[in-house]
């Protein structure tokens, strides 16, 4: 099969012919149709997440169909279309797993990081961490739901019942979260890079009531803010934008250092919290909710062999919505 291989930080992905993997016990072999491009993929190839297995096939927003199953698997029939997210496996026995917090599992394995992912024509996945794809979503439109959607949804739940919600960094996750938040009756205030008129117009198109640069103060005091951009300097900016009791949620797996800030912008029972990974419950809830909104993902397709180009476009903020690799049919 064709696959894009990551050999280590500082090296571009290389296109290679490698053997089709065999599913082990509890696994399914999937023919990959599409795989979303995520900022986490950038953090891996740029060396900011420093413990990938090497060589590695990246990609963790996988849409594929079941080709065959390993021993002990009876969940999905051959041909069933499923999605594979970032959380690829958990131990099920650590204190986090036992308390319903499998996203914090001490021994978790992540798709496209410690397990080979979807930048390939075939992949294997732990059947317990595969989700049925909702009807009505073509492969390309379904792929961003599996990380941008799931992590965005978990971030939104962390924001509580905030009526006025700020979103910093208007990319794949934000354009999905905005649709869900509007469905829930919230007002969304979008923050982009300075001068990003296209991004601000896109945010308003998705339902934001206001869009401006991250350096600006919104016209109304926010109840909560979600930061998707991996820029630590946005944390003090978001704290200044939220009112008393406001929540600032950091939705990424990696962020640059947060600069020093005065206590008075945290005082008033404001809080900062991070989001780590996802649970299968998040997946079931969000993939049930998405068709009711309905969430409509904006995607920019790339062929599998153009994965490096897609990552470069993501790095410079040139993708409207979500980038998706078109792998097979």
Written account of the structure:
GO terms for molecular function: alcohol dehydrogenase (NAD+) activity; metal ion binding. Belongs to the zinc-containing alcohol dehydrogenase family. The protein has 329 residues and is an alpha/beta fold. It has two domains: 2-133 and 298-326, Quinone Oxidoreductase, Chain A, domain 1 (Alpha-Beta Complex), CATH 3.90.180; 150-274, NAD(P)-binding Rossmann-like Domain (Rossmann fold), CATH 3.40.50. Helices cover 23% and strands 26% of the residues. It contains nine helices and 17 strands. Strands 3, 4, 5, 8, 9, 16 and 17 form a seven-stranded mixed beta sheet that branches. Helix 4 (148-158) packs across helix 5 (172-183) and helix 4 (148-158) packs across helix 8. The chain is globular and about 55 Å long. The two termini are 14 Å apart.
Keywords:
17 strands; alpha/beta; Quinone Oxidoreductase, Chain A, domain 1; 329 residues; Rossmann fold; 6-stranded parallel beta sheet; 2 domains; single chain; 7-stranded mixed beta sheet; alcohol dehydrogenase
CATH class of the largest domain: Alpha Beta
The name of the CATH superfamily of the largest domain reads: Medium-chain alcohol dehydrogenases, catalytic domain
Helix content: 10-25%
User: What percent strand?
Assistant: 25-35%
Order of helices and strands: EEEHEEEHEEEHHEHEHEEHEEHEHE
Instruction: Please state the second-level CATH architecture of the largest domain.
Output: Alpha-Beta Complex
CATH overall fold name of the largest domain:
Quinone Oxidoreductase, Chain A, domain 1
Shape: globular
Distance between the termini: 14 Å
Q: Strand tally, please?
A: 17
Largest sheet: 7 strands, mixed
Judged by helices, strands and strand pairing, the structural class is alpha/beta
Mean pLDDT comes to: 97
Oligomer: single chain
Pick out the low-confidence regions: none
Helix count, DSSP H or I runs of 4 or more residues = 9
Family: Belongs to the zinc-containing alcohol dehydrogenase family.
GO molecular function: alcohol dehydrogenase (NAD+) activity; metal ion binding
Pfam family, one: ADH_N
EC number: 1.1.1.1
